[in-house]
Amino acid sequence: MKKLTPLFIALLMLGACKKTTIAPVTTPVKFTSTSYATLGTYDATGKPSYLTTKDVVSTNLMSYLSNTLPEHTDLRNSHPELLSSSASADIKITQKSNVAITFVSQGTGISDALGFYTYPTNSPPASAADIKTITYIFPSVGLNSPLQPGDKVNIGSFDAGTSIGFVLMQNGWSPTSKSVVNDAVHFCSNPVLNPEVDPNLKKHAVLINYTPENKVLIGFEDLDRTDSRCDNDFNDVVVYATVTQ
After folding, report:
1. Is pLDDT above 90 for 29?
2. Phi and psi at residue 60, in whole multiples of 5°?
3. Is residue 15 situated within a structural domain?
4. What's the number of domains the chain is made of?
5. Dihedral angle over CA of 180, 184, 189, 192, nearest 10
6. Which of 78, 51, 84 is nearest to 66 (CA)?
């Protein structure tokens, strides 16, 4: 038998110890420098005390929505143009305006919450550190939400040059403590703030134009899109905004 040299043995050991590095598909995003606020109080079900006059959500709109974002149907196959669109779900304020958000529907098994943040339009956030405050719009907007289609909240008056972004907080409502959960996983309308590494998977909010009523719906996906349980149907929470001067 041929005798192995010490150098050859050392090389074999080095090769055996070398580990293959696998790039992560998702990287947690922490909002450690962000503060959290509410627009008012809410009851034990998460229903806001600050709901304003309810909108009428037509049966035609609901039918259109169910046909466009059917349950458990991957949007990449049914309407890939919604995901490939460069249009942002953020609201850009071009003159001083009041903004209201209306709940349309939810189709999730998770107790989500919905909030918003603002930033200068000409300086969009590059990381979670740029989000100074997140304000809850609907504390409970997902599973067992008390909200009904048309429930509406005024989120405030905003100056020109301000943009409003949205954040869907996965399990952001605790049915046990009957309160919001600030350290829930955040999925933002700004893709750069989301945890997926693949840029094709970072989008969590899509815009759906409903031209008969001049409304633009915002549909959210509430699971990490690298998760095998994610169905990419983007109907987990659906809302629309009303901007008035």
Report:
1. yes
2. -65, -40
3. no
4. 1
5. 150
6. 78
Residues near 238 by beta carbon (within 8 Å), at least 6 away in sequence: 65, 69, 104, 105, 106, 217, 218, 219, 220
Rounded to two decimals, the pTM is 0.90
The mean per-residue pLDDT over the stretch 101-128 comes to 98
Q: What is the pLDDT of residue 7?
A: 55
Structural domain of residue 217, as residue ranges?
A: 25-244
Q: Does residue 206 belong to any structural domain of this protein?
A: yes
Question: What is the distance between the alpha carbons of residues 169 and 90, in angstroms, rounded to a whole number?
Answer: 16
Is 59 domain-assigned? yes
Q: Which token pair is 90?
A: 């953020």
Using DSSP, state whether 60 is helix, strand or coil. Answer: helix
* pLDDT (0 to 100) of residue 21: 58
Inside any domain, residue 20: no
Nearest Cα residue to 89 out of 188, 235, 230: 188
**Among candidates 209, 226, 231, 235, which has minimal Cα distance to 85?**
209
Give CA torsion, residues 155, 159, 163, 168, to 10 deg: -10
pLDDT value at 132 more than 70: yes
Quote the CA–CA distance of 206 and 215 in Å, as a whole number. 13
- Whether 20 has a pLDDT exceeding 90, the answer reads no
CA distance 99 to 95: 12
Q: What is the DSSP letter of 151?
A: -
